[in-house]
Amino acid sequence: MRGGSQLRSVERAPFGLTPDGARVDSFVLRNASGMEVSCLNLGGIIRSICVPDRHGVMADVTPGYDSLEDYLHDPRYFGALVGRVANRIANARFTLDGRNYQLPANEGVNHLHGGPGGFHRALWHARPFADHCGQGVVLTHTSAVGEQGYPGTLDVRVTYSLTEANELCLEYEATTDAATPVNVTQHTYFNLAGHNAGSAMEHELLLAASRFTPVDSRLIPTGDLQSVRGTPFDFTTARPVGAVIDTPDDQLRLGNGYDHNWVLDAGAAMVAGVAARLHEPRSGRTMEVETTEPGIQFYSGNGITGGPVGKGGAVYSARCAVALETQHFPDAPNQPAFPPIIVRPGAPYRSRTVYRFGVA
């Protein structure tokens, strides 16, 4: 523990053993106002986020599971760190410095979220800390050369910290000994009424993004940056997620709802200085997102079906929670017009995202 004996330490407890006997631990972070975040060293999974509503009533606002076994077989990436490259890479291949790389295809012909053995399956080394700014856990992992087909050995460090301002801060760093693509994100889903509260379609969403990247039939970006104006993708003014989600639209049909990357506006163009804002009207809970990333994947939880039973016996169904994944754009290694994601020796990868919870 850092900062003196008067500080509360992070609670650490065993959560279970993997099939090969490795111990998985749970870490609980708490602040003075009662907000609580729990996470695992398996996959950096965020298991729960408990925050108050406008009356001070606490609720866990992220779906998850009670058992390690269910996390080991989770098809939904609940709460997990994903990488080396989050989102999709077309045809599970890319070319870098004149060399072709083939990755495992785990979504049709595409490579998704770092592959079947990506960061969400890694057992991270975890070091809890507490200081006068809050509590946290530092997660580190070495991704060996050739892991999931990627070049270079990548040393990754992710820090989760909970502040007294009800902020969950995510800081990502990585260094490599050879050029490799890197695009790490967090895949927590949110239902601000409570993880087991049913549909999230009444949540009001604001996205500081005047453009998005339309996709083809494989959900791979076409390379265009399309204006959201006059489309169901316009969240520059807050509106319910489900307001127009079922209207006839080719892009909504391809995603079975929203599963697209928004191009975040920069600087003064950002609405209220945040990349995204989510508001649940019944509870009054809000979540604001700040990020150094150029994009955000908004996923309306269309495929949350058919998985294990959730925490406390909750049965999760399609569109019961939404994800706001800060990121570089999908398929960036194959899209030269997109912001690059190649990390090289001597030039570390760094990214920061903050989820700030409040009430309105």
What gap, in angstroms, lies between the N and C termini?
Answer: 35 Å
Put simply, the count of helices is 2
Shape type: globular
Helix/strand class: mainly beta
Largest sheet: 9 strands, antiparallel
Instruction: State Rg.
Output: 19 Å
Helix share of residues?
A: under 10%
Strand content: 35-45%
Low-confidence stretches: 1-5
Counting DSSP E segments of at least 2 residues, the number of strands comes to: 28
Q: Going across the biggest sheet, name each strand in turn.
A: 11-12-13-14-28-24-23-18-21
Order of helices and strands: EEEEEHEEEEEEEEEEEEEEEEHEEEEEEE
pLDDT average, as an integer?
Answer: 95
Give an account of the 3D structure.
With 360 residues, the protein is mainly beta. Helices cover 3% and strands 38% of the residues. The chain is built from two helices and 28 strands. The protein has a nine-stranded antiparallel beta sheet with strand order 11-12-13-14-28-24-23-18-21, with no helix packed on it. It has a six-stranded antiparallel beta sheet with strand order 17-26-25-22-19-20, with no helix packed on it. A five-stranded antiparallel beta sheet has the order 1-2-3-4-5, with no helix packed on it. β11 and β12 form a beta hairpin. The protein starts with 10 loop residues before the first strand and ends with a strand.
